[in-house]
């Protein structure tokens, strides 16, 4: 699979999940901070954008790099167009709410 497909696939699936959840009025958390809402977002948008560009041009064919780029891009889209990252997945053994893009970044 080409690296662009990994990036685009993560963005599409994550954004579709968020649109469905928001459309149904299900409870979500809007995270204005960075990791787990710990830091304010000022300046982090540009750091995230820079990281995505760096990953985009990296020559590695490893899918993990492109999953991270797709997750970062999807969360950047949330920050720019929704005012914060939309988190909607809550598991009983995880202390925070997260989204599919976060899984791609960490995975």
Descriptive account of the structure:
By secondary structure, this protein is mostly helical. Helix content is 59%, strand content 6%. The protein has 4 helices and 2 strands. It has helices at residues 3-24, 44-57, 63-82, 100-106; strands spanning 29-31, 85-87. The protein has a two-stranded antiparallel ribbon with strand order 1-2. Helix 2 (44-57) runs antiparallel to helix 3 and helix 3 (63-82) packs antiparallel against helix 4 (100-106). The radius of gyration is 14 Å and the shape is globular.
Low-confidence stretches: none
- Taking Cα atoms only, what radius of gyration do you get, to the nearest Å? 14 Å
The largest sheet has its strands arranged as: 1-2
Global structural class:
mainly alpha
Principal-axes geometry comes out as globular
Number of strands: 2
The share of residues in helices is 55-70%
Distance separating the two termini: 18 Å
Per DSSP, the total helix count is 4
State which percent range the strand residues make up. 5-15%
Average of the residue pLDDT scores: 81
Order of helices and strands: HEHHEH
Largest sheet: 2 strands, antiparallel
Give the tags.
two-stranded antiparallel sheet, 2 strands, 107 residues, mainly alpha, globular, single chain
SSE inventory with pairings:
Elements: H1 3-24, E1 29-31, H2 44-57, H3 63-82, E2 85-87, H4 100-106
In short:
This protein has 107 residues and is mostly helical. The protein has helices at 3-24, 44-57, 63-82, 100-106; strands at residues 29-31, 85-87.
């Amino acid at each position: 699979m080409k690296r662009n497909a990994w990036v685009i696939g993560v963005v599409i699936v994550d954004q579709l999940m968020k649109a469905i959840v928001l459309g149904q009025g299900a409870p979500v958390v809007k995270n204005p901070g960075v990791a787990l809402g710990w830091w304010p977002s000022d300046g982090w948008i540009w750091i995230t954008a820079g990281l995505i560009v760096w990953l985009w041009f990296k020559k590695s064919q490893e899918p993990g790099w492109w999953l991270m780029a797709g997750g970062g891009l999807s969360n950047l889209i949330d920050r720019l167009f929704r005012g914060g990252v939309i988190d909607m997945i809550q598991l009983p053994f995880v202390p925070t709410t997260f989204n599919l893009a976060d899984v791609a970044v960490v995975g």
